[in-house]
Structure formats: C-alpha cells, structure tokens
C-alpha cells in the first residue's frame, strides 16, 4: 500500500503507473524482469477508510484479470 496525501485518484494513478513502469524497466539477477499490477482508490470518493481499501483491492484484481502489468482505479481504467 502506498499512501499519497493530498492527492486525488488521478494523481495516485499516475504515481502508481510511474512505479509500475520503473519496476518493469529494472533487471533483477535471478528473474531478469518482473512486472506489477496495482489498484487505486481515493478517500474523497469513498465512504470511509475501509471502503477505500476495498475499492483499491477490487481494482487490483481487475488489473490482474485484465492481463497484469497494469494499474486500474475505482473510477479510472
């Protein structure tokens, strides 16, 4: 989990995409390359912290089901 204070979902999405791209470009000794998927949500459109985390988790699983190595948001795809 990465928390981006004073950021809406679009800003957090861009941060997650940047991290995803940087990891994808790295080479690792044993596995050569890895990729990540991410889910993004924000507190502004969520009822509370639990629903925000639940939304990000659902977005993460949508990203994985959509082919992995991607970031999806609750309101951004």
Summary keywords:
77 residues; mainly alpha; Alpha-Beta Plaits; two-stranded parallel ribbon
Question: What does this protein structure show overall?
Answer:
The protein has 77 residues and is mainly α. The protein has a single domain, classed as Reverse transcriptase/Diguanylate cyclase domain (Alpha-Beta Plaits, 2-Layer Sandwich). It contains two helices and two strands, in the order H-E-H-E. It has a two-stranded parallel ribbon. The longest helix has 17 residues. The radius of gyration is 13 Å and the shape is elongated. The two termini are 19 Å apart.
Secondary-structure blueprint:
Layout: H1 9-25, E1 38-40, H2 49-65, E2 71-73
Parallel strand pairs: 1-2
CATH superfamily: Reverse transcriptase/Diguanylate cyclase domain
Please count the helical segments.
2
Distance between the termini: 19 Å
Strands, count: 2
Number of domains as seen in the coordinates: 1
Give a brief outline of the structure.
The chain has 77 residues and is mainly alpha-helical. It has helices at 9-25, 49-65; strands at 38-40, 71-73.
